[in-house]
Amino acid sequence: MKEEKTSLRIEISYKTIIFTALFVIGIWFLILIKEIIILVFFSILIVSALLKPVDWLTAKKVPRVLSVILVYILVIFVIGFVMGTIIPPLVKQTSDFASKTPQIIDSVNNFLVFHQIPTENISRAIEGQISQIAQNFISISTAIFSSIFLILTLFVLSFYMLLEWKTLIKLVTSPFSGKQEKLVANIVTKVEYGLGRWVRGQLALSLIVGVMTYVGLRLLGIPFALPLSLVAGILEIVPIVGPIIASIPAILVGLASAPILGLAVAALFLIVQQIENNLLVPMVMSKVVGLQPPVIIIALLIGAKLAGILGAFLAIPLVVVAKIIAGELLSEDQKFEDDMEEQ
User: Where is this protein localized, as stated in its record (predicted)?
Assistant: First the structure.
C-alpha cells in the first residue's frame, strides 16, 4: 500500500498582509512620537485637575474663556505665593546646609571612629552620594530650564483643551454612532473624572507628607527642617525610591547634631512612611482612584521596571484609565447579553 501523503497548506490573504503591515507601521509611528504622547497625557492630567473649577465657574454664567483664565490666574497666584513664602528661608537654609556639608561628614566619620566602626570608604561613599544627589538635582534643573519650551507648550495645550473640552469629546466620538458614540463619550468623561481625582489625591499626599515631616523635624530640633521637609513632600510624587532619597540628607543632618538624633530622624521617616503606606494611601488613593493597595504596588513595580521613575509615576493613572475602559466595555457586554436573553 502506498502511503498517502498529506501536505499542510497555509494561505495568507492580502488583507492579512495589509493589516499586519499597517499594524507594524502604527506601532513604529507611536514609538516615534512617544514624547508627544507623554506631553498630551500630562496635558490631560492638568485638564483633569482644573476642569472641575472651570465647569463650576461656567455654570455660574461666567464665559468659558474667562473661567479658564481665572483658574489659571488662581493657580499661578497660589504657586507664586507658596514659592514667595518658602523660597527665601529655603535658599538660606539650603545654603547653610551646603556650607556645613563637610562638617556633617566629619561628624558622621568621628561617630563611626569613636564606636570602632570600620570607616574605610564610608566617608567617601557619603561624599559620593551627596555629590550624586547634587549632580542629579543640577541635571534635573538643567533639563527643566532647557525644556522651558515644552513646559510652555504643555500649559498652552492644556489651556486650549480646557477651553474646547466639549468640542474635543465630540471630535473623539465623531467616528462612532448610536450606542457606541454614547459609550465612548461616557468613557472619556469617566477617564477625565478618575484622572482628576488621582491628581488631587497625589497633591494631597505630598502636602500631608511634607507637613508631617516638617512638624517631626521641628519637634526633634533638626536644623534645615524647611528644605528637608520640602524635599520629602516633592519626592513623595516619585514612587518607591523618592521617600528613601528624601531621608538620606535628613539623617545625615541628624547624625551631625548628635548620633541619637540621626536614629530619631530615621525613625521619623520610617513612621511617616508607615502612616502613609498603611493609612494615607488606602484612605486617599484607594478611595479616589478605586484601586486596592496591592494593585497600586504591583502597578508601581511594573512601571518602574519598564520605564524607571517616569514609568512608576505614570503607572497609576494608566491603570486608572485601563480600569475605566475595561469596566465600561464589560458593562456594555453584560447589557448586550441581558438584552439577548430577554429576546
Answer: Cell membrane
Q: Check residue 102 and give its pLDDT.
A: 66
What residues does each domain of the chain span?
Answer: 34-163+176-334
Which residue, 226, 217, 207, is CA-closest to 276?
A: 207
The 10s digit of each residue's pLDDT in 47-66 is 888 888 888 888 888 888 89
Judging by beta carbons within 10 Å of its beta carbon (0-12, 13-18, 19+), is residue 88 exposed, middle or buried? exposed
- Show Cβ contacts of residue 236 under 8 Å, excluding neighbours closer than 6 positions: 205, 206, 209, 210, 242, 243, 246, 276
How many CB atoms are located within 10 Å of the residue 321 CB?
18
The percent of the chain in helix, strand and coil, each rounded to the nearest 5, is 85, 0, 15
User: Dmax over Cα atoms in the chain, in whole Å?
Assistant: 98
pTM for this predicted structure: 0.65
* Per-position DSSP letters for 296-325, written without gaps between them: HHHHHHHHHHHHHHHHHHHHHHHHHHHHHH
Residue 230's alpha-carbon distances to 9, 136, 192, 227, 342, in angstroms, are 67, 17, 29, 5, 60
Ramachandran region of residue 221, left (φ > 0), alpha (ψ -120 to 50) or beta? left
Would you mind telling me the total number of residues written for the chain in this entry? 343
Q: Which three cell numbers, joined as nine digits, stand for 327?
A: 469596566
Residue 14 Cα distances to 10, 19, 25, 28, angstroms: 13, 9, 16, 21
DSSP string, 128-195: HHHHHHHHHHHHHHHHHHHTHHHHHHHHHHHHHHHHTHHHHHHHHHTT--THHHHHHHHHHHHHHHHH
C-alpha to C-alpha distances, 72 to 17, 60, 65, 201, nearest whole angstrom? 49, 17, 11, 20
Q: What is the dihedral of CA 29, 33, 38, 39, to 10 degrees?
A: -140
